[in-house]
Description:
The protein is mainly β. Helices cover 0% and strands 41% of the residues. It has no helices and 40 strands. It has an eight-stranded parallel barrel with strand order 18-21-24-27-31-28-25-22. Strands 3, 5, 6, 8, 10, 11 and 12 form a seven-stranded antiparallel β-sheet that branches. A five-stranded parallel β-sheet has the order 26-30-33-35-37, with no helix packed on it.
Amino acid sequence: MNDFLTSLLRTRKRRTATFATLVVSTLIASMFALTSATTASGQEVTIWGESAPLNVTATASTGAVELGTRFTPTTDGAVTAIRFFKASGTSGAHTGALYSASGERLCAVRFDSETGSGWQVAELPAEVNLYAGDTYVVTYTNEPGMDHAESDDESFISATPALDIATDGASVTRTAKGGFSRARERSTHYWVDVVYRPRYGPHPSWSPSPRPEPSEDLSDTPTSAPTDTPSPTPSATSPTPVPVPSEPATTKPPVTPPAKSNDAAGFPTASTTGVPAGWSPTQTVYGDYTVGDDGAVIEDLRVVGGVLYVRGTDITLRRVELVGARIVNEYAGRCYSGLKIEDSSIVKGDADLGMPAIESGGYTATRVKIDGVSEGFRVGGTDVGCDAVTIQDSWVRVTPPDDCTDNSSWHGDGLQGYLGVALIIRNTAITLVERPDCTGTAAFFYPDQGNTSATIDNVLLAGGGYAFRLGTQGTVNNLKIVADSWDFGPLDVSSCGHVAWGTGNELVRIAGNGSLISAGALACKSG
Length: 527
């Protein structure tokens, strides 16, 4: 196995989904025939390699389904073709598409002369240039009622260092509204891929290719809602962001859900966290944005769609608003610790990204508001050198994704730990909102997934299967769980013997004026 293959599955230990619509699948081989790790400029590579995945099944669809893979090039290059793996028994016509992170369709192509099964490849009428560090989604769409290929695996491993994928949640579906949502299970593979020609060496002086239009009608391929072009990732050579928005910020107001949800006296609320009331950005960026200077201080910035990449140490983000966007400080096997996020908001945009609002570790979040997205804080990164995480004076409300139907579980969390070093969370309120047809996991989910420890003090939780799930050693004081807000119970602790269960832990009710009314003591209970 080549040295660059360091990504491992971040398995989420979840409540088992038992819904009839879920696909019964088996484990497949986690290794593929690998494209050379020393690809020279001009040699084409793919995400999944050339080997056929094992145990792929033809899964029935009730309507047209657009399935995809979210990926990030690590070097500039060009997509020359789109491909997908076809399971035996799959029928119907298929079309492929490539999208930017904001949902703009960059190209589309029809698959002609398909074989009965195996990899199907459609050459693009014109290659599409991509930027290193930007995130893209490649998809294919089948006809209404036709089957599609699907399988389950215990690893997301790219066959080339030129194309990076998330270690979980790389597979996505696209809704009729134009947004992307991750697959119901993070280990699901849809086997959608690109043929990519990397360009190595210094950044060349080329610009993205014009968006090619297909030579025939592709009206059965959904078009995306956003139409503006995201700004290229800036070269972070100065602490001050310099991108120029592609259109005036006033034409793209943030889409903010209702603000109030279980606000309680003595805890942060939607109005006391996030960017201040009356705030406006000095600069707005559409699409991905990168901060790379160590010690940089970024203030009064709005990012609409995409990802705010942190690729420097000891960076401060102050009064930053992310609309349909998120923050990531882990990249290419390295964590950029020392990140401070202050007085900042992360809210839903045109579509939920279906990924954590902030990840992975080595950060301090102070007066951060996360509202209306389907995943909140991620605490992790021990495998890539992340430091500890502190979350304080913050307010979180996670809600179901738009594309959550047929009694499906989206498995969302207000906070989830996976390979976390040490977590300190204090004076913070987290609510997980569920729908009858769409259930989440926990407001606080910190199980035995390689996490080290957790210190909890003055935290208010509501919602989820269990509102509070803890599987590591830790200290718990002043934990408040809103009575009757859960599906199964207020808490699930793997071993109370490993937890210092302190004082002030209780069930509460919230009065109309926001004051807390005790509903009884909350004792530690092992699952």
